[in-house]
Each structure stands twice: as structure tokens, then as C-alpha cells.
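Support request, please re-run this one:
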Amino acid sequence: VGFVTVIAGTIQVILTFILGYSIATLFNFDYYNAIFLGLICAFSSTMVIVKLLSDRDEVDTLHGRLLIGILLVQDVLVIIAMPFLSSLGSFSFSIAFKLVIATAALALIAFLFSKFAMKRIFRFAARSGELLFLLSLSICFLFALVAAFFGFSIAIGAFVAGLMLANLPYHFDIIGKVSPLKDFFSTIFFVSLGMQFTLIGLKDIIWPMAALLTVIIFLKPLIVTLALAMFGYGRHTPFITGSLLGQTSEFSLIIVLAASSFITSEVFSLTIILTVLTITFTSYVVDLDEKIYALFSKRLRFLERISLRPLKELEYHKKINEKRVILIGADRMGSVILNDMLKDKRNNLLVVDSNPEIMSNLIKRKVHCVYGDIASSTILKKLHFQQAKVLISTIPNLETNKKLLKYAKHHNKKLIVIMTADHLQQALDLYEAGADYVMLPRLVSGEGVSQLLAKHKTDKAHIKNQRRKHLKHLLNVNSKMKNLW
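Re-run finished. Output below.
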């Protein structure tokens, strides 16, 4: 995923910048303003997307990891670009040299501090939750100050501080403690954004606004979708990933504020309006993305044909005469099921997944596997449910599971179908649709804790004993997963 997101993210930023810049010049914006409008089109909002993914518990999904990877690439590129933007009007080689030296100095300070001081300081601070919280904020303010000293935006310093904190073993605890603060300032951000929204002079920028909206909402997602499809991710994952990138970034406002002496009032108004409209649009798209995909699914088949890697290279076939088990999804929960089933050589297992990396690893282990999107009727036909005895779907998507369940039961009424749901209502819907068993990971976890407390009450010795056994089991599973992949 890492290599793919770097390439796809870089391609998207370059092409979207060129489109935005070209449209700006067509509407007679000067060179400097056209550059800023191109950059505003090129970047998407990490804050908005991560929040939406977290709310839907999709951070660890394939499209979630691709989205975060692409957004991080964008953030790094905008951080690199910002120092040069502030001196665009008086740019020279001497200024460029000073910026390079300042960047190197900031990076060196961050590296040395992270290498020799951070872990020791935080090891002491971790004894107290309040101290850990205050120290995390202090690091953020410290590097914002260091960045300002070198002539950079304080946002750059805050970003560097975030990268340093992410490498600490306490980063999950830190995320939890600063989350309320993050939500508070996010609210302030959107309030201030709304306060700057004005309809005065809108008629003068209506056509460039419409053209740039087309680039941001339609062409930018299309570029990402095509780039990911070329890497062999099929059609569903690229489409969902691309559709959620159709907005401008919070860095857009930082960019225009940093370059307020170069840009016109029209560009500033355009930035505010584009940010408000595209973020609002994304909040609706995130709830409708699966329905939109279902609507255009058949027309997106060309995405599977433009892959630079032939789909046959992502499949491994065995001739099986006996009844087999079909596993849909070999990531996260699916990987645990797969690992257990591979222990018994009598299991005739067929795995279906749309992640090229997982498929490559399955092929190395000579596991019978088919690459593709399970929502595709073409893939469903290839699975030959008549020859199967058990179907296990680890995908928590309700609509996809319903379609899969209906198709599988139609072709094999005796088939045992086990599905996955995120919520209780989804599980009830799947049972009503005919599922034989529905896995509810969250409910199972809660029941496990209840059983633990019911059995051992408040006996700390017994709880510690269970902790030791559970930790040993987790380490064992983790070791097996590393060997598997």
C-alpha cells in the first residue's frame, strides 16, 4: 500500500495542479493567482476524511489505508511547498538556498530531539495521564515556535511534532487524550470558515468556481480511481477511495493566508467557497458512496482492464473435486480464519480478495485464490457455489453481503453461509435474508469481557492469569500472521 499511495498521490497532485492552473489562466487569473488556485485544487482534507473514516470504523479497511496514505503524501508535498509560496513574489536562488538550509536545520533538530530526548522524557511523563497530555501539547507548541524561528508557518512545526509523536509507543494514548481538543478546534475551524463565507461578488467568480468545482469533485477522484485501478485494485476499492477525495484541504486557507500579499480578493473568496462547498459535498458522498458505486458498477468494468498487472497473475487455481470452503476477505478477521483453516490440509479453501498484496502472498503459499470485487457478478459466477459447502464473508458491508447471500443461496440451498456485521441491526437484517450465522466482532468482544467478569468476579490474580494467557495467544497469532504474509 505504501508504494502505491506515494505514486498515486504524487500523480494526482501533479495532474490536479495542472488542471487547476490551466483553468485559472483560461479565466485570466495572473501567474501567481493561477498557481495558488492550482494548489488549492490539488490537495484534500486529511482532517475531514480521517474523521469520517473514524466515525464509520473504516480506518483499517483497504480503502481507508489507501486514503490515509494518499492524504499523507499530499500533506508532505504541501508542507514542502509552503515555504516557497511565502516568497514567490521575490523568488531567487539565494532565497531558495536559505529555505533548503532552514528545512534541513528543522529536520535535523526534529531528528536529534526524537532520537535522543523524546523517549526518555515521555517515559517519565507516561506515569501520569495529565503530564503526558501537557507534554504532548508542549512538543506541538515548541516545534511550532522552532518552525516560526526558521521562517516557516507554525502549521509546518505542528505537523513535524505530530510525526515525532506518532513514533512513540504511547501515541494511541496521546491520540485519545488530545481528541477532545482536536474536535473543539475543528468546530472553531468550521465556524470561522462559515463566518468568512459571503455572497458579495459571487457573480464575478461563478464560472471559474463552477470549473474548479468540476476539477475537485469529479476529475480529482477520477485521477485517483484510474491510478489505483492501474495498480490492480479492481473497480470497487479505487472508486470508493477516489470518491472521498473530492474536497479541498484545510491547508488551502493556510496557503492563501500565507500568501495574502500576492493573491486577489477573488482568489480568497474562491478558496472559502470551494472549501465550504466541497467539504459539505463530501459529507453526503460518504453516506452514499456504496449506492453510487452500485449505480455505476457495470460501467466501471473498464477499470479492471487497465491494470498494468494482468489479473491472471493475481490468481492461483487448484483442481478440487470435493466440496470446499469459500472465504471472502483475507485481511484482519479473514487472516485469522485463513490461518486456522490452513492448519487442516483436508480443508479445500478458496479465498476471494481485492487487495493485490494479499493475493500475491496467497499465491506464494499456493492457496487457491480468486482476485476481484465480490460485488461483481462476473466474480460470483467464477466461484461455482454449487461445489461449495461453506461460505464465510468477513466483509461488513450490508448491501454487498445481501447480494452475495441471495446469489449463493439461489445456486446452492444447502450452502452454510456465515456473514459479518458491524451492528446489531445489520445482523438481524442478514438473518432475515437467510444467513445461517452472523459474526458481530464488537458484540463478541463485549460478551467476552462479561463472561470474564462473571467467571472471575474481581479476583485480580485470576484476571492477571487470563491476561497472561490472552497476551500469549495474541503474540502467537501475530507471529503466525507475519509468517503467513
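The first strand starts at residue 324 and ends at 328. The mean pLDDT is 82.
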